[in-house]
Amino acid sequence: MADGFDMDAVRAVLKDLMDKRDIKRKPLAKQAGLGETAIRDLFDEKRHDVRVGTLVKLAEFFDVSLDHIAGRDPVPLLGKIGAGGAILFEETDEPECVPRPPLAAGRLMALEVSGDSMLPKYEAGDVIYVRRDHDGVLPEYLGEYCAVCTADGGTFLKILAPGTMPGRYTLRSLNAADMMDVEVIWATPVLWVMPRRSRPRP
């Protein structure tokens, strides 16, 4: 990290912006008023620095903030997730935002833990960070602490395990009974957690 920028985060954000705009490296450099090799150099993983002026021009071109292009945007807190009973998952139009975890690049969402069935690992008020890139369940998620959305609309924080029948899963708690043979719409592992005591308050 140089000049306070995490280059992996910068590259991830820039790639996402380029993909959405469907623009390649050379045209981007030209249209953003940069040298012909500026974008190529930025994507060179051997390089560990970037000029602030380069990021400012890219932010202006994509009409985003400097914090966004640097991968420092806060993360939307989209609702609560049940570590006890089911919590209905509903995204709000104007979610509260929480700080981005250090060195965390890309699109994240945050959920506030509700309930006590995952104590002592997670407690009510903790914030977990996950990515929601796809529906369904990937095999490598089995055995992981996951945010899980079930077919009835409930959202749970559980350990994901195979069910006793194809296409069904067991949701395990640390101090409550397992939920057996649940139909899962999507599951995604917990990547980071912000303990409730560290959470900034208005």
Description:
This protein has about 200 residues and is of the alpha+beta class. About 20% of the residues lie in helices and about 25% in strands. It is built from 5 helices and 11 strands; from the N terminus they run αααααβββββββββββ. The strands form 2 sheets. Strands 2, 6, 7, 8, 9 and 10 form a 6-stranded antiparallel beta sheet that branches. A hairpin with a 3-residue loop joins strand 6 and strand 7. The chain is elongated and about 60 Å long.
Write the layout of secondary structure elements.
Elements: H1 7-21, H2 25-31, H3 38-42, H4 52-62, H5 66-69, E1 75-82, E2 87-88, E3 96-98, E4 109-114, E5 127-130, E6 145-150, E7 154-162, E8 169-172, E9 179-182, E10 184-189, E11 192-194
Parallel strand pairs: 1-4
Antiparallel strand pairs: 1-3, 2-7, 4-5, 5-11, 6-7, 6-10, 7-8, 8-9
Could you name the key traits of this structure?
202 residues, alpha+beta, 27% strand
Oligomer: single chain
User: Counting H and I runs of at least 4 residues, what is the number of helices?
Assistant: 5
Task: Please give the alpha-carbon distance between the first and last residues.
Answer: 30 Å
> Based on helices, strands and strand pairing, what is the structural class?
alpha+beta
Q: Specify the helix fraction band.
A: 10-25%
Low-confidence stretches: none
Find the count of extended strands (DSSP E, 2+ residues): 11
Question: What proportion of the residues form beta strands (DSSP E)?
Answer: 25-35%
Give a quick rundown of the structure.
This protein is of the alpha+beta class and 202 residues long. It is 21% helix and 27% strand. The chain has helices at 7-21, 25-31, 38-42, 52-62, 66-69, and strands at 75-82, 87-88, 96-98, 109-114, 127-130, 145-150, 154-162, 169-172, 179-182, 184-189, 192-194.
